[in-house]
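Annex B. Sample input.
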Amino acid sequence: MKIPKKIRIGGQTIEVSQPNCIDGGKLGECRLGDGYIRIAEQFNSAKQSESSKLNTYWHEVTHCILDTMGRGDLSQDETFVSCFSGFLTECYISMEEDWKKDNDPKTE
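Annex B, continued. Sample output.
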């Protein structure tokens, strides 16, 4: 999956960027009030894998959705956010695999 540069959540535009690194050694961060998600290209001086960046993207999207819903209690629960975003990532990857199969001329 290519991580989008912009998404909308609850009527708000969220800019998505992928800086080389994020202060504090984070994989990602979001600031709903400032309208952005950032996904680090590197973590602990090593390039973050595409699958890790994808999971981080959905993790930050989950935070944004929960914050928009007024569920800061759940957004601050990293165990919940990590588990839920892991399910979103897995769901999206499986859909993407099906889309590729459906559009593969070899399978028609």
